[in-house]
Amino acid sequence: MAWLQVSIDADSRIAERFADALMELGALSTAIEDAAAGTEFEQPIFGEPGEPVDQLWDKSRIIALFDADADVAVMIAAAAAEAGMALPAWKEETVEAQDWVRVTQAQFDPIRISDRLWITPTWHESPAPDAINLALDPGLAFGTGSHPTTRLCLQWLDASITGGEHILDYGCGSGILAIAALKLGAADAVGIDIDKQAVTASNDNAAQNSVTATFGLPDTLVEASQYDVLLANILANPLRVLGDLLASHVRPGGRIVLSGILDEQAEELSRLYSQWFDMDAPVFDEGWTRLTGTRRSV
What we know:
Layout: E1 2-11, H1 12-24, E2 29-34, E3 59-67, H2 72-83, E4 91-96, H3 100-105, E5 111-112, E6 117-120, E7 132-135, H4 148-160, E8 166-170, H5 176-183, E9 188-192, H6 196-208, E10 214-216, E11 227-233, H7 236-241, H8 243-248, E12 250-262, H9 266-273, E13 277-279, E14 283-285, E15 288-295
Parallel strand pairs: 6-7, 8-9, 8-11, 9-10, 11-12
Antiparallel strand pairs: 1-3, 1-4, 2-3, 5-6, 12-15, 13-15, 14-15
Helix pairs in contact: 1-2, 4-5
């Protein structure tokens, strides 16, 4: 079985209307990308959860998939008329059926965090069988170790966990940080996330790694509980809002680890958290920052 894939460049102001019109006319799927992706003119677009993104790329590329026998020319002409744009040029190619599971899996190789800590998808043999291997597959929740924000936190855990610590992972995503802490010797770990799917994924991943952790929604977190280490790999805006709450869950002398912060946001966030913590120098990786600090006595 095969499909037709069509690529069309369009002004970003009407790209969504055009893509919606294609779907209404029978396209199987549409996606909007930066037309300059992969070039020096690529435009990164960042946003915070719950906040609208008020900027799109100067020029968008619509990728649309059609049945092999679809009359693509007629559909594109009708969609252009619906969107109020001139008939665009397009590129067309045939997409053959593939084993998409294997294709997807081939994109995810084992990830080395350190000599003793690896993340290994379940379909791979570990390159370092004597190391600590986190069995983790890409799924519904954020955090597979490939992103710099997660990698920064894992590197800190690898260097800092000595054994017996009580861990809170706030915004646990896939549960990877809580699971890694346990496999590195932490006594116990609690993971909190606002997404029920993340809680489910974290429990599944913990079982897959033969560790026991407690994952739940924010209302399950014991109000007065305090931890030796609190990890929050989220984004700058929730870190701003949650500062007082997160600080309240770190015991005096305990450590906080913050990530999901862009380099240009590091100074502001470090200054904010210095109300409660003696902050260390930031650590940077590919445009992202890790902040750490030690909780002062109340």
